[in-house]
Write a structure and sequence with these properties.
This protein is mainly β and 136 residues long. 12% of the residues lie in helices and 40% in strands. It has a domain of 95 residues. The strands form 2 sheets. The protein has a 5-stranded mixed β-sheet, with no helix packed on it. Strands 5-4-7 form a 3-stranded antiparallel β-sheet, with no helix packed on it. A hairpin with a 5-residue loop joins β4 and β5.
Length: 136
């Protein structure tokens, strides 16, 4: 009986060690890009013609004044006009403004309050980039 148990143990160990290992997180070789690390964002606010870098993940105390969110789209090409469809939403999930269509050469200006806000890009023309900033 001891020999049978030892033989089975050796067979199981040999089978386990010689089987091909499978990848836990295999790499996808398709055309999509996967980002595994979180992105770091820094918000730029303009107050009295001074630019301030603000970390949006830290609660900021803002003054109770008129706050405007500016959104601009650009594609850096002279032969085409970039467009983007965006939504503006409060991070507490209460308000969603838009969707708005922004065309290159025009700035979208939306009045917001002292809560934290963000911009979601729903659709853009090819090779365009959307920029947004807050002016108090």
């Amino acid at each position: 009986m001891k020999n049978l148990v030892m033989t089975l143990l050796v067979v199981v160990a040999a089978t386990t060690l010689t089987t091909k290992a499978t990848a836990i997180n295999p790499t996808y070789s398709g055309s999509s890009i996967t980002i595994n690390e979180p992105a770091n964002y820094v918000e730029v606010r303009e107050t009295n013609n001074e630019l301030q870098l603000i970390n949006p993940f830290i609660q900021q105390s803002t003054t109770t004044g008129e706050i405007k969110l500016h959104v601009k789209v650009n594609d850096n090409e002279t032969t085409s006009t970039a467009t983007a469809e965006v939504e503006i939403y409060s991070l507490d999930g209460v308000d969603v403004l838009g969707p708005y269509t922004v065309t290159e050469g025009e700035d979208l200006v939306v009045d917001i309050d002292e809560r934290e806000w963000s911009v979601s890009t729903l659709q853009t023309s090819q090779n365009s980039e959307v920029t947004y900033w807050v002016v108090e």
